[in-house]
Amino acid sequence: MTVLVLGGAGYIGSHAVDRLISKGYDVAVVDNLVTGHRAAVNKKARFYEGDLHDQKFLNDVFDKEDIEGVMHFAAFSIVPESMEKPLKYFDNNTAGMVSLLEVMNKHNVKRIVFSSTAATYGEPKQIPIKETDPQIPTNPYGESKLMMEKIMGWSDKAYGIKFVALRYFNVAGAKEDGSIGEDHHPETHLVPIILQVAAGERKELSIFGSDYPTKDGTNVRDYVHVVDLADAHILALEYLKAGNDSNAFNLGSSTGFSNKEMLEAARKVTGKEIPAKMAPRRAGDPSTLIAASDKAREVLNWKPQFDNVEDIIRTAWNWKQTHPQGYNDRTEETK
Ligand code: UFG
User: Does 141 participate in catalysis according to the annotation?
Assistant: First the structure.
């Protein structure tokens, strides 16, 4: 039996493919390579280039493969972009999910592990955020993912397709050997941007907002290592295979680091000065996001290996130093 990984050429998907293969799973990958990288996909996985909206293509993949479960990473995820182009997000993310569930139902595939996000909660009423807290997204990205969760909920009731929604907090880091890592165009995330400055590719870091009600005035986030995140998907798949009901889990460390603390940690890890300046707030940034993640630890038996941000940054720095141009597969037009 095969695990089908949608979006397996992306940052998180490629780490999940790699972990699945290292644990002996048979893996097939679907990716349209719009944001993903062919070189990020472990060579032991069968690769199909195509889009979730293309039902003929998807049906062919499901005909060819004997699929025991789907991991779904194929989505757009840039919050500011979603504010400007909401329909792009509802089309790719939400409508893509409808297309996928139709094909899964047709082929009697009844398990899906889904990349959801802390952005489904919006501005939290309390910290740490629990899975049962209200989900009131403040941007179309979060809304598109919340809709996907709800669509899976109704599809469970109607067709018996069981799902696990994994609500990620802030993902960072890379496989320890530096062979795969984060390569976005454009890059918007804090850790890779800090490391671009450390590597001399950017002049300085702009820290967005210094007047938040936090310990040092900058935003606080909860960082989780990408390999730990990948492992949680495998545990979630096994949870479904054991016959458990649909469920949702936060994935975080339950510890918050401010943007300034992340900068200091990166200075320590890299030994570089990393020039930085304070800049205005970025629209849509909640002040503090910290997960209550004991549910994943208790129910899925998730045991993250990385419990401090310096180690997480160290693995990202290793990737950056060994791959200064990332996968180096983007032409000027596609950057
Ligand atoms: N930041 C800067 N300067 C930069 C880039 C980011 O100060 O150049 C700050 C942001 O303002 C924020 C923090 O660094 O305070 C983290 O920003 P990221 O863009 O790295 O991550 P976000 O917290 O905005 O978003 C991440 C995921 C989203 C997800 C969200 C949910 O990227 O997909 O977490 O928590 F929705």
Answer: yes
In sequence order, the 6+-apart residues with CB closer than 8 A to the CB of 298 are none
* Domains of the chain, each with CATH number or no CATH: 2-172+223-251 (3.40.50.720), 190-221+254-322 (3.90.25.10)
pLDDT digits over 27-82, tens only?
Answer: 999 999 999 999 999 999 999 999 999 999 999 999 999 999 999 999 999 988 99
Q: Ligand 1 centroid to 190 CA: how many Å?
A: 6
pLDDT in tens, 88-108: 999 999 999 999 999 999 999
Q: What ipTM was reported for this prediction?
A: 0.96
Residues at CB less than 6 angstroms from ligand 1: 77, 79, 117-119, 141, 169-170, 188-190, 193, 205-208, 219, 221, 259, 282, 285, 289
| 173 in Cβ contact with 226 (< 8 Å) | yes
User: Mind spelling out the 3-state secondary structure of 64-95?
Assistant: HCCEEEEEECCCCCCHHHHHHCHHHHHHHHHH
